[in-house]
Amino acid sequence: MRTGSFVLVPQIKATRVYMGIDNRGMESIAIDFTCTPDFELITNKISSRIVSISDTQRLFISLVDDDSTTKEIFETFSKDIISSIEVASTEMEVLSIIANRFKYWTELFKRPKGTYDEKWIQGFCGELWFLDNVLIDKVGSDEAIRSWTGPEKANQDFITSDKIFEIKTRLQQANSIRISNENQLSRDMYLAVMEFSKSSEVASDSINLYKLISSIYTKTKNPKIHGEFNRKLLELGLFPIANAKMYDKYSYEFISLVYYRIDREFPFIDHEDVPSAIIQYSYELSLDNIAESKSSEEEIWN
Fold it and tell me: Long-range contacts: 197-206, Cβ < 8 Å, 24+?
């Protein structure tokens, strides 16, 4: 596509939205308004500006840098903006939605970038394994990826249309798991405990962040859901996917998955019963002592 060339995004009905290349040669989104938006996006990767064209105020959102990493992020950003405003029926709704998305992306770009320790990697390998090998098969990739709330730091890791799962991973020989959030467990949900053993990144049956993300990509056919998955990975600093390669040394072999039903008999600290003066706590849960709460896959999904 040549410089200054744009194409209309047909699925947006509340206003005119275009995608293309701006007059500086950068990938851009352009959105038409009758009034001047009172917000802007200024980051080191993406920025916005307003151009008056006759009686139209055109909001351009463009790449600042055209390196390959930033281009991948801009593609995810664009899909997020477009999918968010598809549901709008008025220009005012579009303005409100974009203002909120600008705030979200500005805060995301400001977050300090760091590296994760092995305990964190192990935990997210568990979540991604469950997403890849269980949920996508049971509910389909669209609902499975939408239900993954781990990147948003929700109380539980997966909230589907009718089931809630908290995922815990343990290495062989470990007989307990840590409950680190006072709201991680609640009644009428499932605790899924995965057992891993340490492996090598070159072992054919090993898993790691990069391999799991790549596998999920191959099962995600819906472009909107693909974009949502990338946005969640970006929250974790794992997008573009090359960012996950730095953790390849943390590779594991999957051993087992055990489900536990959290019912009235299950032993956990109910936050409603904790004195208000205690505002944060964590505890270890013995797996040997909750064996009676085990549930089979058939009981959960049939």
Answer: 197/171, 197/172, 197/252, 197/253, 197/255, 198/171, 198/251, 198/252, 198/253, 199/251, 199/252, 199/253, 200/251, 201/248, 201/249, 201/251, 203/251, 203/253, 205/253, 206/251, 206/252, 206/253
Cα 285 from Cα 271, distance rounded (Å): 15
Cis preceding linkage at 37, omega within 30: no
Give, in order, the Cα–Cα distances in Å from 69 to each of 66, 144, 181, 235. Answer: 8, 26, 34, 15
Predicted TM-score of the model (pTM) = 0.84
Q: What is the 3-state secondary structure (H, E, C) of 71-94?
A: HHHHHHHHHHHHHHHCCCCCHHHH
Residue 131 burial (CB < 10 Å; 0-12/13-18/19+)?
buried
Nearest residue to 63 via CA among 39, 98, 28, 32: 28
Tens of pLDDT along 6-32? Answer: 999 999 999 999 999 998 899 999 999
Q: Which two tokens stand for residue 90?
A: 């008025």
Q: What is the pLDDT of residues 20-69, one digit of tens each?
A: 999 889 999 999 999 999 988 988 889 999 999 989 999 999 998 878 88
In the predicted structure, residue 182 carries a pLDDT above the cut 70: no
Ranges of each domain in the chain: 6-110, 118-301
